[in-house]
Specification:
The complex is a heterotrimer of chains A (285), B (290) and C (357). With 285 residues, chain A is an alpha/beta fold. Chain A folds into two domains: 2-104 and 195-284, P-loop containing nucleotide triphosphate hydrolases (Rossmann fold); 114-192, no CATH class. Chain A has helices at 2-5, 67-74, 97-103, 120-128, 136-140, 144-163, 179-192, 209-226, 237-243, 261-265, 268-275, 277-284; strands spanning 9-12, 16-19, 29-38, 41-51, 56-60, 82-87, 90-91, 105-107, 197-201, 229-233, 246-251, 254-259. A six-stranded mixed beta sheet of chain A has the order 8-9-10-5-11-12, with helices on both faces. Chain B is mainly alpha-helical and 290 residues long. Chain B has helices at 2-29, 36-53, 58-81, 89-111, 137-159, 161-171, 173-178, 183-208, 218-231, 236-257, 262-276, and strands at residues 116-117, 128-130, 133-135, 211-212. In chain B, helix 1 runs antiparallel to helix 8. The N and C termini of chain B lie far apart (51 Å). Chain C has two domains: 1-39; 55-311, no CATH class. Chain C contains 13 helices and three strands; from the N terminus they run αααααβββαααααααα. The chains are: A alpha/beta (285), B mainly alpha (290), C mainly alpha (357). Chains in contact: A-C, B-C. At the B-C interface, helix 4, helix 9 and helix 11 of B face helix 5, helix 10 and helix 12 of C.
């Protein structure tokens, strides 16, 4: 934990700063002035972020603050009303969800979205879809390419499942997995798309403390092995403060604070947002 | 030209009344009730039997027809659809088609496939002469009926307790139940109203096109369904608008383009509308929660 | 090594299901051939063989849309119709130009029927696949009706200058005097030479099974099923939703077209009205009763439900009524929550007893 809190930050020209170790690579994600209106209602406004190439970032805030909406904007599930999203320096303007994923953003969902009737292995293979190199006719006529590529995909899927020790569940139907395993499978599926940036929407929801601990280690392991950035939404403060290097706090669709875990923990605005104004007054006394 | 306009509105009004039944049932039970067209046919036969066989006066025959269809609608709901309340929409759809076949074949057994010539039941209304154009009694009755039904239904859903319950159930069945609304009773009442309307539509349809066979309801049923979707299924004014537009389109297509292709034109219009507005003219936009 | 083993075991599990379906078709073929050679097969049944094959094939095609792709189509009879009429035209035109070999003509007719139905599938799929759920269903219904309506007005003839079309009447085709009318508007295709054979039907059935089963168990099929299970998650996993929905829909349309060509070339006359909304529903009932997404069930349901009404001809007046009642009861029995949990309890008890034994 201490090691992370010591991350040195450098300013980047865009909307923030990134860890010093990622300097040479430039930020993997830069979003500036991002916002969306639903009807007349502004759900998210002036969202700015810069995320280093191997940074673990956190997005926190009270319920309804617009955290998941930010994920939906980044992955183009909703088209932003305004603002720019640069992925690895490339503008994602005009892309749809599929193209954004192919460009390098993978995500999980707050309300788990697995392919229920497919097996665990096939769920991962959907993540691998774009790296499996044969076309429909080769599949229909079982050309040699089909066998070669399917075997490669099978091995790769098992390898990825093994990160979470789930290889022995490969043949199980996804819907019959226990809740925690379903969350982990979503992460594996997202990883299988070979992303540069992994968005995790409440990965620890419904997990007990020891499972959460294991998850933290796994998120770090994923970052280290794949050399990718992670941005996560989470209500479990132990997890957020434990693995995030930089945290953004949202309230009513706007950023109210940015900083390292220790900065965030002592920020009066954040405490107010979470506990109401009386709490800060109380602390003042 | 004016003639076609009047015919179109008249035909459209019949579609609108049928479409109202579709739309109400869809709005609340979220099901495509393909048997609705056949309830119309039963309504026609009920009125025919009461009028022609038993010699009842017209108002009694119409009331009898409404009564038969209301009871029939509630029975269908109770026996066939209620057991499938939480089943997939495809299962309910197939069941509705089963009900449709059942009604058609029942009618075939009872009344045979020989067409019955339906007496004009609304001839007591005088026809109006507008210089070169005569508006027939059926046309007047149809338009008047559809306007009255539309207003009555709007008032019913806006002002009455039952109407509000219906709207609540159509928004969120679970939440409505938690608020103490009897969901089953509400759905049952919806079917009753929809089927009662079908009876009226049956009488009007058969007064305008006086051949009654067991498949009388099928095509108008499908077209009225198209009208409901065109206007935005689940919306009462939408059903009205869709019905009238469809009637006009069909009449003008028959008059100016081709009789044989008129149905193709009508269905083509539906597709064009749905491409531009995927939930119909007055339908609510659906946003998927992620 | 362990990976290798489970990979092979998975493949073999899928192919087991596949072989079961091939086996059923083969068995059907063998039994019918034996019955035919011994002369025990009634004339009615004999006449039903090719329609059975056609309906099985079109039901398999619809299963690809409803079961695998998860979209409801109420207009598949339309694609069958396109296949039937283009097949009839091709066969007629080839014969007119002196191409006598019936087998080659049948194959060409089926291929062309599938191809034209596929084009229709693309044209319909582009607007339709943007819509969701019930709206998609109603638009496919509308397309089915449009196709029927247009074919009702279509006149096609052939002379030495090639094919002639008209949407008004026979005269407007401007055909030479020695030309031959192939399609006559509402009267449909007339004077069709019946070149479809039962063997051809079985072969087509094998080909279709091969295509569908291999498609489903490939990268493409996986993507199609992923979209069915969760569209947004599929998009977020980099799956091109429109493309794969289209692949399923167009493949299905093409197969339905092939089935239509086979069907059309089995009768001397065929009218557009044959392929109306009721036929689309009939095909859907095969799929639903056979178990959505279940190919084996679809084959059996389509075969039985095509034969049964013919066998029950003597009960003419009551058979459709009985059909309706059975349909409703089956839907309730298989979909009602309480009855389903009863089934489950019953079967799990049985399983346990079996385990004890």
């Amino acid at each position: 934990m201490s090691e992370i809190n010591e991350t040195k930050y450098v300013e980047v020209p865009g909307p923030g700063k990134i860890p010093e170790r990622d300097m040479g690579k430039g930020p993997v994600l830069e979003a500036s002035h991002l916002g969306i209106d639903f009807g007349g209602l502004t759900a998210v406004d002036e969202f700015n972020i810069a995320l280093g190439a191997t940074e673990i970032g956190g997005l926190i805030g009270p319920n309804g603050a617009g955290k998941t909406t930010v994920f939906n904007l980044l992955t183009k599930v909703y088209q932003p009303t305004r603002g720019v999203i640069l992925l690895d320096g490339k503008d994602t303007h005009g892309m749809n969800t599929t193209q954004v994923n192919q460009a390098g953003i993978a995500r999980t969902f707050q309300n788990i979205r697995l392919f229920d009737k497919l097996t665990v292995e096939d769920n991962v293979k959907i993540g691998l879809h774009n790296s499996i190199g044969y076309h429909t006719p080769a599949g229909v006529f079982r050309l040699p390419n089909y066998w070669k590529e399917e075997k490669k995909a099978h091995n790769k899927a098992l390898e990825l499942l093994d990160i979470f020790g789930m290889a022995d569940m490969a043949g199980v139907k996804a819907s019959s997995l226990p809740y925690g395993a379903q969350r982990r499978l979503e992460i594996v599926r997202a990883l299988a798309t070979n992303p540069k940036l992994l968005l995790l929407d409440e990965p620890a929801a419904g997990m007990n403390p020891s499972e959460t601990e294991e998850l933290m280690n796994n998120i770090r392991k994923i970052r280290d092995t794949f050399g990718i950035a992670v941005l996560l939404i989470e209500h479990d403060m132990n997890l957020v403060m434990g693995i995030c290097e930089n945290i953004i706090v949202l309230n009513f669709g706007k950023i109210i604070a940015k900083g390292t875990p220790s900065e965030i923990q002592t920020n009066p605005k954040v405490i107010e947002a979470y506990l109401g104004s009386q709490a800060t007054e109380g602390e003042g006394k | 030209m004016l003639n076609y306009l009047i015919t179109g509105i008249s035909l459209g009004s019949v579609y609108a009344i049928i479409a109202l039944g579709y739309t109400m049932v869809y709005g609340i039970a979220k099901m495509l009730n393909f048997a609705h067209g056949d309830v119309i046919m039963i309504g026609g036969y009920a009125a025919f039997c009461a009028g022609a066989y038993m010699g009842w006066p017209t108002p009694c025959a119409i009331l009898f027809s409404v009564f038969v269809c209301t009871v029939l609608g509630m029975m269908i709901e109770k026996l066939a659809y209620k057991p499938l309340r939480n089943a997939t929409s495809l299962a309910v759809l197939i069941t509705a088609i089963g009900v449709s076949y059942f009604l058609q074949n029942m009618a075939l057994l009872i009344w045979t496939s020989n067409p019955k010539s339906f007496p004009n039941m609304v001839s007591f209304i005088p026809s109006i002469n507008l210089g070169s154009v005569t508006i027939s009694s059926t046309t007047i009755a149809t338009i008047a009926a559809s306007v009255i039904i539309m207003i009555a239904l709007t008032l019913f859903t806006e002002k009455t307790k039952m109407g509000k319950a219906m709207r609540a159930v159509s928004e969120d069945k679970g939440a409505a139940q938690l608020m103490g609304i009897n969901v089953n009773a509400t759905i049952s009442v919806t079917f009753a109203i929809g089927s009662g309307l079908a009876a009226i539509a049956g009488v009007l349809l058969c007064s305008a096109y006086p051949t009654l066979v067991p498949t009388t309801g099928s095509l108008p049923g499908i077209k009225a369904f198209t009208a409901a979707v065109l206007g935005g299924i689940g919306s009462i004014p939408g059903a009205m608008l869709g019905g009238i537009l469809l009637g006009l389109l069909e009449t003008f297509a028959k008059a100016y383009i081709s009789t044989q292709l008129s149905d193709a034109i009508v269905f083509g219009a539906l597709i064009v509308v749905l491409i531009v507005r995927p939930t119909g003219l007055l339908g609510k936009k659906i946003t998927e929660k992620v | 090594m362990a990976n290798q083993k489970s990979f092979l075991s998975k493949i073999s599990k899928n192919s087991k299901m596949g072989f079961l379906n091939y086996g059923i078709v083969l068995l059907f073929f063998v039994v019918i051939t034996i019955l035919r050679s011994t002369g025990t097969l009634s004339n009615t049944m004999n006449g039903q063989l090719i329609p059975i094959c056609s309906y099985i094939i079109v039901a398999l095609a619809l299963n690809l849309v409803v079961g695998i792709s998860g979209e409801l189509s109420l207009g598949h009879a339309g694609f069958m119709s396109i296949g039937a009429f283009s097949g009839v035209v091709i066969s007629g035109a080839l014969k007119y130009s002196g191409f006598a070999n019936p087998v080659m003509r049948l194959v060409t007719a089926i291929v062309v029927g599938a191809f034209i139905a596929a084009i229709a599938g693309i044209l319909i799929g582009i607007p339709v696949l943007r819509l969701r759920g019930d709206y998609l269903a109603i638009v496919t219904l509308a397309f089915g009706e449009i196709i029927k309506n247009v074919l009702n007005c279509l006149y096609v003839g052939v002379d030495e200058n090639g094919l002639h079309f008209s949407v008004t009447d026979e005269v407007h085709m401007d055909m030479a005097a020695n030309g031959k009318t192939l399609i006559k508007g509402p009267q449909g295709a007339v004077g069709v030479e019946k070149i479809a054979t039962f063997v051809a039907g079985i072969i087509l059935l094998f080909v279709v099974l091969f295509i569908i089963q291999n498609l489903v168990n490939s990268r493409t099929g996986r993507a199609i099923m992923a979209i069915r299970d969760n569209r947004i998650a599929a998009e977020a996993s980099g799956i091109n939703v429109t493309k794969y929905k289209m692949v399923a829909f167009v493949t299905s349309a093409a197969i339905a077209g092939a089935a239509g060509a086979l069907y059309g070339l089995n009768f001397s006359t065929i009218v557009p009205k044959k392929f109306d909304f009721n036929t689309s529903i009939l095909i859907l009932v095969f799929v639903v009763l056979g178990g959505i997404g279940n190919l084996t069930g679809t084959i059996i349901a389509a075969a039985l439900l095509t034969v049964l009404p013919e066998l029950l001809r003597e009960f003419q007046d009551y058979r459709m009524l009985a059909y309706a009642i059975v349909l409703i009861l089956v839907m309730i029995a298989t979909n009602n929550e309480k009855i389903r949990s009863l089934w489950k309890r019953f079967f799990s008890k049985k399983d346990k007893e079996e385990q004890k034994a």
